Amino acid sequence: MTREPITAALAELAERPASEWPDALGARFPDDPALARQALAWLHAQRAHAADRDALVLGDGARYEPGVRLDAGATASVWRAYDRKLRRNVAIKLFDAGAPAVDEILAEARAACEVISEHVVRVFDVHDGEPPSVVPYIVMELVGEHDPGTGALEPGASAATCRPRDLWEAVRWVRDVARGVHDAHLRNVFHRDLKPHNVLITPVSRRAKIADFGLAVSGAGRTGRPPSAEAPAGAGRGALRIAGTPGYMAPEQARGLGLALDPRDPADRATLVAVDVWGLGAIAHDLLSGRPPWPCSDGVEAWEVASSGARPSPLDHAPSGERIPARLVQIVDRALAARPGDRYPSAGALADELHAVLGCRPTSFDRSPAARLALWSRRNPQLTVTAVVAVALAGMTLAAYAAVLHLQGQRTALADEVRAALADKDRLAEHARAARHELDDTEANLRAQAAALDALRRSLREAETEYHAIVQAREQAVRSASLATRALATVRGDRDVAEKTRDLYESFWTRARKDAADAGRDRDAAARDRDAARAERDQAIKDRDAARAAIARTEHERDAARAERDRNADARHQAEVEVAKLLGELTAAVGSDGARPAAAPTLEVSDPTTRGAVH
Amino acid sequence: MADDQIAQQLERIIRRVKRSMNYRGSYSTRDILGSLVARWVQSGEWERLKQLPDDQRHLGESVRRFILDRLDQLRRRGKREELDDAAIALPDDQLLVEMVELAELRAWIARRVAELAAGVVDARVRVPLAEPAEAGAILQLHLGGRTQREIAAARGVSLGLVNKRIAEGTSYLAVLQGIERGVL
Asked: So what's the ipTM on this one?
């Protein structure tokens, strides 16, 4: 058997009453009873899934004409319908068979009816499931608007599906929801299941309304699921009741709220208000950041995180990447405070804060004057511009006035100065005339003094010339004296050498004379001993001859020394003449300069002849 | 088995499958307890107890101890001081058994839906599925507590198609459950 005949057979049978299915399937698949049974089960399951719509038709079919399915959840589906009696479009929340008990549904409808608010979906009617209806349902306001282009009525969608276009739309939605929640609180109705899925958005004007009061609790009587449905048998007042969506639960809600919470009791009421304020913060967190405060994959895991006292996931960036303003983060953080007492005291206070943010008005966090001024400027841009321009104009006017006053003062001062200057001018003219006379006299004196000065300058130049000549002469004399001194030193050196030579010759002469004396004595001894030693006489004669030769040499040397002495004497004489000449020149030069000449070098010339005779 | 008996069993199976697939976004105490019971089943304790005779299983005691241990762990993690004064009252044994069965069925459904999402269809089911992978993916979102409109928006398909795929998937699971229970 191919799939097409089976599919076609099922599609055909699905339109027929269920009572006809067994025979029809037996006839269609006579050789395959197993397939027929599977097809029968398939058809029953399909019919069970579609039963709710049939129930709507069977129920108050005469009044409500069913339309399209708007949405479907775990326990109910929402249909668009037309109320024939009142001739209006409505939405019908049709509960599945075996889903919430009738009293819960009634309580939900009553809680919603209790609240009068433009931000809460209105409930028109409820059917408790009594015959002829099969399942209970609630008739509600259809959150929809006519499309301005086509004129067709468009239904709204939940905020979980229809996400905000930007941060400010999200803030507007949360503000509207907070207003609705506050209105509900005023009627002692507490929602306890606030999340984007329970916020419906109108399609054109995009306004937000709260729906689904299934878990609400009311001061007029417990609504939502009563203890019998939530708590196991035997649960007393001390037993806890967990109700809500784990990803959006307040911590104390996740830890369980007492079954006997009484909205009329101030303490219990504060607890319930805090839970809803948290829920509003959770909606804001989701709409702003795109994720719930407890983003977990599993409901029970989110419940565990919520009840563990952890901090919600940080609120920093929108899904678009846009940074969430710090003022919004502060507000959401306060709404999501771990301790209920740290949250906003009411949903209305939170709505006011968000309204302030939308209107650029200061919130409870904007206490500084600078922040308030900045917000005022953003709130009143035209006034701000006007004020700035006015202040600028006033400043400019004041500056101009001050400048005029300053100029006037300057003009007066200048006039006084002019008058004083004119008086000074006359006085100065008189002074100038006197000064001119004095100047003429002074010029004459100066001219005379200049002539005298020129004469003096000429004399000075001449004196300078003479002085330079004297200086040159003196320098020449000094140089000559220096040369003479060096020559004298040379002469003195030569003289010392001659004296040493002379002393040497004297010693030689002394020794020669001694030798001569000895030779004489030897000659005498030889003469005396001539007879005794003729041989020695010859020797003595030889010695004598040798001595004579030596004497002759000595004499020759003596003559040479004398000649040398004579030359030295000539040189000394010549040096003395030159020194005397130089001294004369020096004396003459000093005397012409008008100054005492420097002490001429004194020359001490000793005559070697006076110190010893040269033999 | 008589036809009326088969019909009754089928109706019961369909009702249980449909009920098991009603995953809600909103949780109640019973949902939390149901999730904890599912974790108890995943822990393997149920498989061990099933090996024991009925009079030795003490199912309720085992589940209760598991849940209390879990709550105690949470209390030790920090701020569950409120639970010291008022504890969550646990259901009786009969209700616990029902919750265990429901948890088993949910685990079974989750496995089958994951297979469908992977395009795997059980060969024993002879009624064809049009788009098994799409039906599996949509059913996974449905089991995650998403509404049909949210699923349609997430997958970019029409609301009617989402409803159709959920109906097909539910029928497939009901048939497969009937086969495994020996009814079909």
From this structure: 0.85
